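Consider this record:
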Amino acid sequence: MIWKNLETLAQFESIIDDSFSQTILIFKHSTRCVISINAKDRLERQWKPDKSQNITCYYLDLLQYRDISNTLASKLEITHQSPQVLIIKNGVSVFDVSHIGIQFDSIQKFF
């Protein structure tokens, strides 16, 4: 699994634009939370590259970039959770899941 770091609001706007031509996954991660660490590890272990070719994966460090997380929640009209995976298509969040629900099998149908 290859992560791109999400670190600026301008980058977030670009990601929204990109979601019209490809599927976007954003993993919102708290680096101090054991549940978040375990969810990220589980997703990375379950990841199947052959079933996820047209998706770009972004990693958002919530502790460092809380302003981006707040903007993301507002613009995509989602409730903030951590950890949380969002699937973005055509400028909107088509799926979001948190905590134990973060499983490859539950999100792959949106690719």
About this structure: The mean pLDDT is 92. The domain at 3-110 is CATH 3.40.30.10 (Glutaredoxin). Helices lie at 9-18, 34-46, 66-76, 104-107.
